[in-house]
From TrEMBL:
It is found in: Nucleus. The chain holds residues 13 to 561 of 739 of the full protein. Its EC number is 5.6.2.4. Belongs to the helicase family. RecQ subfamily. Signal peptide: none annotated. This is ATP-dependent DNA helicase. Residues 33-207 form the Helicase ATP-binding domain. Residues 223-391 form the Helicase C-terminal domain. It catalyses: ATP + H2O = ADP + phosphate + H(+); Couples ATP hydrolysis with the unwinding of duplex DNA by translocating in the 3'-5' direction. It comes from Linum trigynum.
C-alpha cells in the first residue's frame, strides 16, 4: 500500500524475500530493476531459468501503478498470472480466451483512479489495437503506467528462431508512450537479434545487461547411435536408471515420437507423445498431465528454427513451465546450436543437477544436411530471396552442432563459445562427458570415424536405408518443405501430400534435366527412396483418421 516508491537495494531485497522467498538477487536482476525504476530503458539478456520475470515483477511491487508485460503466448501469461495470484500479488491478463465478464472486470479496474492490478499481461496483438493503445494512454496520463516489459523480445527479430510478425507492432509503443521505460528481455544471445530488438523497440541508450549463458547445473553428454546396439533400449535404460524423473525427449519426426513413446510405455515409463499430428484436445491434455506431474516423460517433435510460431508451440518449446525437468534428451541432432541450447536449457530450471543427452548418428547428420539444403532451396524459390546465402547460413549453424557432437574436449566450452563467451578451464568442473571421460570419448570418436569411413565407401544409398530403430519416412521431409508455406496454421494444415513414387521420380527428373550429371542421379535416388519409405509406412493411421477416432 501507500504511495511510496522503494528504490534502495535493501528495500527491494525485502520485497524479494517477502513475496517470493528468495534470499537475494541473482545475476543482473538488481541492475535491471534499478534501471527501469529510475526510468531507463534496459535490454536484459539472461539464459532460460536465469530469473528474468523478477526483473519486472519486483518493480511492479516497488512502485504504485501498473507494469505492462507483453508476452507471446497465452499459456505463458496464464501460468505467470496464476503463480502471482497464489503469492497474493494482483496480476491479470487480457486475451481472446477470456469471458466478456472477466475482461469487463479488468477494464473497470484499469479505468479506476487506483487500479489494484500491479501487473497486466497482454499479447502483442492487443497492443496493436487502437482501442487498447488509447486505454494505455489514459492510464499513462494518470501517471500509472510505470514500465513496459517485453518478454521473449527476440520474437521481434526475423533473425531470431521464434520470429513473430505481431511483435513488429510493438515498435509503436515508443511513439505513443515516449517516456515509459521499456525493459526488453530475452534468452537469445545472437548479436544480430540483439541489435534488431534494440532498433525495433527504439530503445534509448538502454542499459545492456548480459548474464553468462553457462548452465552449471546441467551435465552435457553425447551418445553415439552407431556404437549402440539398440538406441530405443538405451534410452529406456537411461530413463529407468534415472528413476521416475521428469524428462523431455525431442525427436525429429512424429513417427519416431509415437514409436518411442510406445516403446517407453511398454517398459513401464510414464510417458506420452506430443506433436502436431495429435489432435488439439489430446495435446493439451498431455501438456496438462505433464505439468501436473501425472506424466513424467514427454516425447515431442522439435521443429527447427524459423518455422511458424504455432508449429513451434506444437513443438513443445516456448512456454514450458516445469522447473524440475531432470533430463532433456535429443533423440536426433538439432538443427542449430541455438535451438539445442534453448531446448536443453529446459532442464534444471530449479538449479538442481540435471542432464542433457544427445543421441548422435551419422545418418541423422546426413539427413539433416539434406533437409536443410532442401528446405532452404524451397524457401529461396518461393520468396525469391538469396537461397544460397540462407542455405549457407543454416548449414554453417548446423556445422557447429556437428562439431559439438564430433569433437573431443569440453562440450560446455563449445556451447558457450557459440555465444561469444570465454570459458576458463575450470568452468566445467567435469560436468560433461568430454571433461569427465576424455579418453573414452576419444575412443568413441575414433570408432565413429571408422564407421563413417566405411559408410562412405559403401555408397550413398544408405542415406535413407538407415540404421537403428529410427525410421525414415517422407513425412518428415514434407513437414519441412511445407512448414514455411502457410501463413495461418491449424492441424489440418499440417498434412502430408500424398503423391506417389511416380511423382517423386518426375519431380526429381525435372531437376535432373536442369542439373545434369551425377548430382541429379543421387537426388533422384534419395527422393525415390524417401517416397518409397513413406509408402511402406502408409498403413499406419494418419493423424486425420486419429482425429475421427
Ligand atoms: P526465465 O524467465 O529467465 O527463464 P524465471 O523468471 O522463470 O526464469 O525464473 C526461473 C526460476 O528461478 C524460478 O523458479 C524463479 O523462482 C527462480 N528465481 C528467480 N530469481 C531468483 C533469485 N533471485 N533467487 C532464487 N531463485 C530465483
Amino acid at each position: 500500500g501507500g504511495n511510496k516508491q522503494i528504490t534502495d537495494r535493501e528495500g527491494l531485497v525485502k520485497l524479494l524475500r517477502w513475496h517470493f522467498g528468495h534470499s537475494d538477487f541473482r545475476g543482473k536482476q538488481f541492475e535491471a530493476i534499478q534501471a527501469v525504476l529510475s526510468g531507463r530503458d534496459c535490454f536484459c539478456l539472461m539464459p532460460t531459468g536465469g530469473g528474468k520475470s523478477m526483473c519486472y515483477q519486483i518493480p511492479a511491487l516497488a512502485k504504485p501503478g501498473i507494469v505492462l508485460v507483453v508476452s507471446p503466448l497465452i499459456a505463458l501469461m496464464e501460468n505467470q498470472v496464476t503463480a502471482l495470484k497464489e503469492k497474493g500479488i494482483t496480476a491479470e491478463f487480457l486475451s481472446s480466451t477470456q469471458t466478456i465478464h472477466a475482461k469487463t472486470k479488468i477494464h473497470e479496474d484499469l479505468d479506476s483512479g487506483k487500479p489494484s492490478t500491479r501487473l497486466l499481461y497482454v499479447t502483442p496483438e492487443l497492443i496493436a489495437t487502437p482501442g487498447f493503445m488509447s486505454k494505455l494512454n489514459k492510464i499513462h496520463a494518470r501517471g500509472l503506467l510505470n514500465i513496459i516489459a517485453i518478454d521473449e523480445a527476440h520474437c521481434i527479430s526475423s533473425w531470431g528462431h521464434d520470429f513473430r510478425p505481431s511483435y513488429g507492432k510493438l515498435s509503436s509503443l515508443r511513439n505513443h508512450l515516449p517516456d515509459v521505460p521499456i525493459l526488453a528481455l530475452t534468452a537469445t544471445a545472437v548479436p544480430k537479434v540483439q541489435k534488431d530488438v534494440i532498433d525495433s523497440l527504439c530503445l534509448e541508450s538502454p542499459l545492456l545487461l548480459k548474464s553468462s549463458f553457462n548452465r552449471s547445473n546441467i551435465y552435457y553428454e553425447v551418445r553415439y547411435k552407431d556404437l549402440l546396439d539398440n538406441v530405443f533400449n538405451d534410452l529406456s535404460a537411461l530413463l529407468k536408471s534415472s528413476g521416475d524423473v521428469c524428462a523431455i525427449v525431442y525427436c525429429l519426426e512424429r513417427a519416431t515420437c509415437d514409436e518411442l513413446a510406445a516403446h517407453l510405455s511398454k517398459h513401464g515409463i510414464s510417458c506420452a507423445a506430443y506433436h502436431a499430428g495429435i489432435n488439439n484436445n489430446l495435446r493439451s491434455s498431455v501438456l496438462d498431465d505433464w505439468i501436473s506431474s501425472k506424466i513424467q516423460v514427454v516425447v515431442a517433435t522439435c521443429f527447427p528454427s524459423n518455422g511458424h510460431y504455432l508449429r513451434q508451440l506444437c513443438s513443445f518449446r516456448m512456454g514450458i513451465d516445469r522447473k524440475d525437468v531432470r533430463l532433456v534428451c535429443h533423440f536426433n541432432i538439432p538443427k542449430s546450436m541455438e535451438g539445442f541450447y534453448q531446448e536443453s536449457g529446459r532442464a534444471g530450471r530449479d538449479q538442481l543437477p540435471s542432464k542433457s543427452i544427445l543421441y548422435y548418428g551419422i545418418d541423422d547428420r546426413k539427413r539433416m544436411e539434406f533437409i536443410i539444403s532442401n528446405a532452404e532451396n524451397k524457401k529461396g524459390q518461393s520468396s525469391g530471396g538469396s537461397r544460397e546465402g540462407s542455405s549457407k547460413k543454416s548449414l554453417a549453424d548446423f556445422k557447429l552442432m556437428v562439431e559439438y557432437c564430433e569433437g573431443s574436449g569440453c562440450r560446455r566450452k563449445k556451447i558457450l563459445e557459440n555465444f561469444g563467451e570465454e570459458v576458463p578451464p575450470s568452468l566445467c568442473k567435469k560436468s560433461c562427458d568430454g571433461c569427465k571421460h576424455p579418453n573414452q570419448l576419444v575412443q568413441y570418436l575414433e570408432e565413429l570415424a571408422t564407421i563413417a569411413a566405411g559408410r562412405q565407401r559403401s555408397g550413398l544409398s544408405r542415406l535413407f536405408l538407415s540404421s537403428s530403430n529410427d525410421k525414415v519416412g517422407g513425412e518428415q521431409m514434407s513437414e519441412f518443405w511445407n512448414r514455411d508455406d502457410e501463413v495461418s496454421c491449424s492441424d489440418e494444415d499440417i498434412s502430408d501430400s500424398d503423391d506417389g513414387i511416380e511423382n517423386a521420380k518426375r519431380e526429381a527428373g525435372c531437376k535432373a534435366s536442369r542439373r545434369a550429371g551425377v548430382n541429379a542421379k543421387i537426388e533422384l535416388l534419395e527422393r525415390a527412396e524417401e517416397r518409397y519409405y513413406r509408402n511402406q509406412n502408409s498403413d499406419k493411421p494418419s493423424h486425420k483418421s486419429d482425429k475421427n477416432a
